[in-house]
Amino acid sequence: MKIEELEKVNVGITGTPIEYMPYMTKYLGGGKLYIKRDDLSGLALGGNKTRKLDYIVKYALDNGYTTLLTYGGVQTNHGRLTVAAAKKFGLKSILVLKGAKPDYLSGNLLLDRLMGTELYFVDTTSLDGDPEKDIKAKKFLKECSEKIIAEKEKQGEKVLDIPVGGQTIIGAAGYIQAVKEIMEQMKASNIKADYVVCGYGSTGTFSGLWAGAKYYNAPFKVIGVTIEPDYVNPNETADFINKISDFYGFGFKCTADELDIESGPENEPYGGTGYNMPDEVTWDYVKLMADKEAIILDPCYTGKVFHGFADMVKRGKFEKDKNAIFVNTGGAPGLWGKEQLDFANDLFWKDYKVGGVMKF
Ligand SMILES: Cc1ncc(COP(=O)(O)O)c(C=O)c1O
Fold it and tell me: How far is the CA of 129 from the centre of ligand 1 (A)?
């Protein structure tokens, strides 16, 4: 299958702008710093998953699926965008979320609820402390989703089972083609970028960009920044990229040591303390971007990636006068997830001295 022949729908907007960040460049030093605004991808508050879903939804429609089912944490952005994309194309959606049902509706979950999806919570808290928790929880999740799918099929639905993060070869086409878009935008706006930095979560964004950069012979290097301490092994990512290469006939092979995945220093890893666990360092980077450029990141993904990006500028990873693009993959609804919001209140509000309170 040639990548150029793979058709898609538009669940959101591509051609998101690349903007220069003058104040951040001045603040951090180094070459010119840019931001690719994939947070402005148009669908239900935007984010990177719209590019993957363009191809996944097309596949679903072409193959007679009636329902999109996917997985994630309770605050999954991918889940929110899958629900929205399904809605936009007349499909049903189901989210199978890892975690207990929260008492309080917030962040992405509020948006999921508003858009009217079917929600399942796979609660494995009873396994806490069990050394085999991960294996058992994974098995249980699989059993739960199989049960849900079987039930739906009995009711006449055809369910597309989409892995966490939309991590599929078809979905990866979104970020392969984003490379073409970035190269065209660089040419049109006379931007010379040597690095493109994105998040490294379920890894589809990084893998797509990496494969696309290789296939289209991009003038920039793609760097992934880990968003949790326990991140996907680069060998697995190299395997995934090789599958992409085989599927689209790119004709290259990649090995893990060719991949530039940055996890930061041991005492202050970019991935913070855990997946979507609030931490002060990440929030400080969210604040820094808001303060300098009025661009709103999130504390689960892009705040961490920006921590890595800023640190790479500071430690001279991007050689002098080399320019870099930070990919803002969206995720702002996570700012208002209950746990994050409580943490932000302690950090930015409790001891904050307001300019004044004028009572009438
Ligand atoms: C806002 C945001 N940024 C980055 C990522 C990481 O992208 P990927 O899972 O493709 O590695 C995600 C994944 O859900 C995300 O929601």
Answer: 28
